[in-house]
Amino acid sequence: MRPDVLAEHLAATIRGLLGPFGLRLAALEQRDLHGELEGLAVRIAELEARAPVPGPAGPPGSAGRDGVDGKDGLDGKDGAPGLRYCGVHVHNKTYDTGDLVTAGGSAFHCQRTTTAAPGASPDWMLMVKRGRDGKDSGGRS
Q1: pLDDT in tens, 6-16
Q2: Which of 4, 32, 35, 109 is buried most, with the most CB atoms less than 10 Å from its CB?
Q3: Cα–Cα distance, 115 to 118 (Å, whole number)
Q4: How many Å from the N-terminal Cα to the C-terminal Cα in the chain?
Q5: pTM for the full predicted model
Q6: Which helix H or strand E contains 126, and what residues bound it?
Q7: Angle 94-100-106 (CA atoms, 0-180°, nearest 5)?
Q8: What is d(CA 24, CA 18) in angstroms, rounded to the nearest whole number?
Q9: Neighbour tally for 127: CB within 10 Å
């Protein structure tokens, strides 16, 4: 092949390969890239200003390890077991453990929560039995 024909074929091949790049480069040179970048910066700023949209919940995580046991505190002081005097027994009133009542001149201690009458139920324990009536001393001391 003649060198001039070879050169012409080679030039045509190079133009065919580089032609689209040249056209693209010319199109880019005509665009206002600085203005386009400013527009993109404005759009990005608008997107960043939006409130985030939470996605779906993920799978539950694995269980954490147990924490260290705390130091044992001192034992508290036991409260004094109290007796509560409730006066004369009232029929059908609820009494709690530790309540004291008088009935028929005797004193009774409540053993468990109850509405029963003292002396007629095992819920009550006789503490002080009524004594005998004294004889009239006729005013003598």
Answers
A1: 888 888 888 88
A2: 109
A3: 9
A4: 164
A5: 0.41
A6: strand 124-128
A7: 115
A8: 10
A9: 14
